[in-house]
Amino acid sequence: MRSYLVPGVRRKNARISPGLLQVMSLVDMVAYEKHEKGLNRIREIKSAVVYQSLPFEVHKSAVGLFIAEVARKSIREPEENPRLFDFLFRTFQFLDHTALPISNLHLHFLLELSFHLGFVPGGTWSEETPYFDLQEGLFASSKVTSHQYLDTTSSQVLYQLLRCDYSQCHEVRIDRQMRQGLLDKLLIFYRYHIDNFPEINAHSILKTVLS
């Protein structure tokens, strides 16, 4: 995670176009890196991917903004992580290119990102372990009073999402009410496992758009 200073970007003849710096932009850049300072300077920047649909379709934009905000607020490590970067890059490319339904994509993203952050749900759903414990991050056989859980149906759906990829997640049957409830619970799951995980502002917008 890096912060950059881009002087004069709002000027008429700016050297760097503001359009390259929009949320969700995928760019190729050369920058001066001074690790002892909070702000670095960009030397060269250009588009790495030119979106075809993501900025123009309201459903895709809402999902993309949610993904971007969750990533920005959950990734804390300062060092490079090529696998995590590749995952995020591919996610935005898939969202732009896909013609498949995307109503479950944000849920799948939260689960796959949790793998990269080190707290992916563990265990398996079965009749013997029908509850997902949000605090422990495991499928459990019974409930502890002080913990929060998914009910058995939502736990089974969560397990189905864990076992598929982006191109298949639309096949998991989830009605609107369960989808919204599962989104709320997964954000609680994140708060259990990321210290001081802040409120996600795109959450309410996403729920409205997808409904």
Pick out its properties.
de novo design (two linked rop proteins), 3-stranded mixed beta sheet, 6 helices, single chain, alpha+beta, 211 residues, globular, 3-stranded antiparallel beta sheet, 6 strands
Unreliable residue runs: none
User: What is the name of the CATH architecture of the largest domain?
Assistant: Up-down Bundle
| Helix and strand pattern | EEEHHHEEEHHH
Kindly state the percentage of residues in helix. Answer: 25-40%
Text of the CATH class of the largest domain: Mainly Alpha
Count of DSSP strands: 6
Number of domains: 2
Q: Please give the largest β-sheet.
A: 3 strands, mixed
Beta-strand percentage range: 5-15%
Note the total helix count: 6
What spatial form do the alpha-carbon principal axes imply? Answer: globular
Q: What structural category arises from helix and sheet content?
A: alpha+beta
- Output the radius of gyration: 19 Å
**Termini separation (Å)?**
33 Å
Integer average pLDDT: 91
CATH superfamily of the largest domain: Recombination protein O, C-terminal domain
What topology, given as strand order, has the largest sheet? 1-3-2
- What name does the CATH topology of the largest domain carry? de novo design (two linked rop proteins)
Description:
The protein has 211 residues and is an alpha+beta fold. It folds into two domains: 1-48, no CATH class; 51-210, Recombination protein O, C-terminal domain (de novo design (two linked rop proteins), Up-down Bundle). It contains six helices and six strands. Strands 1-3-2 form a three-stranded mixed β-sheet, with no helix packed on it. A hairpin with a 6-residue loop joins strand 2 and strand 3 (39-47). Helix 1 (58-74) runs antiparallel to helix 6 and helix 3 packs parallel to helix 5 (176-193). The two termini are 33 Å apart.
